[in-house]
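User: I want to check something. If I give you two sequences, will you return the structure for each one separately, not as a complex?

Assistant: Yes, each is folded on its own. Here is the first sequence with its structure:
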Amino acid sequence: MEFAITYHAATLAGGIPTLLNPRTASERFVINWKLRRRFFNHDGPLLEKREPGGLPALRRVFTTRHEHPGCKDFATLLRPTSARFPEARQASEGTIAALPYSSGTTGLPKGVMLSHYNLVANVYQIVGPGASPLDASDTMLCFLPLYHIYGLTVALTLCLSVGLTWF
């Protein structure tokens, strides 16, 4: 659930979530980007052998499940606030909603810029006319990793769009 909350809060706040496998040595990919990372949400136990170093703009690291020195507990993000979401700067077709990695066919994995429009179009390909007859009375068992585009689209975004219960 923390992934779903973090992902959607970041997009609503105008951020671009970078979807990473929590077991990957993510620093080797993130450091090479010229993008500024402000926040990093990670599974606490998996931070034991690595630190998100090399990210000079990093302001805070939040962890789930277990505390980690120098990090804040994810639950602190769930407190009420008076902050407002920023207004959208451009249409959904041009606003980047996610930066998942593609293994590609050559070299290291590369970040793929996906717009909100791309993700919504993928959901409508599944539930559109003549497609899957899903509705809010259905339940989905999700075993796909949500940091992968297939899990993000077919599980998380689909379930939230249709109102499915998911586990």
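And separately, the second sequence with its own structure:
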Amino acid sequence: MAATVRRWRSGGGKGAGDTLSAQTVVGDRVFVVAVHMARVHLVDGEEWRAMSRMIGLDLAEKLGATDCVVILKSRRSKSPTFDGVSFFRFPGSAN
């Protein structure tokens, strides 16, 4: 995931508007990390909250995520780490 994001931020490869995710199951919990790559930097915090919530709910539905972190990376960001981060906990357990 990190190599894909680095390549995308440096101008190569696909990714704008895409979300990468990785998951692991520990006991009855499904932990998911997602990185959303945005072409432009989101200035509005409410816009990021709505977008990250939608991504988190989608991952909970598709992957059965119980604990999820969604990270925002913008292509032209001045931040070397991330531009937004949201944490979610969903009810349920791994099947």
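Because they were folded independently, the notes below concern the second chain alone. The chain has a mean pLDDT of 82. Residues 45-63 form the longest helix (19 residues).
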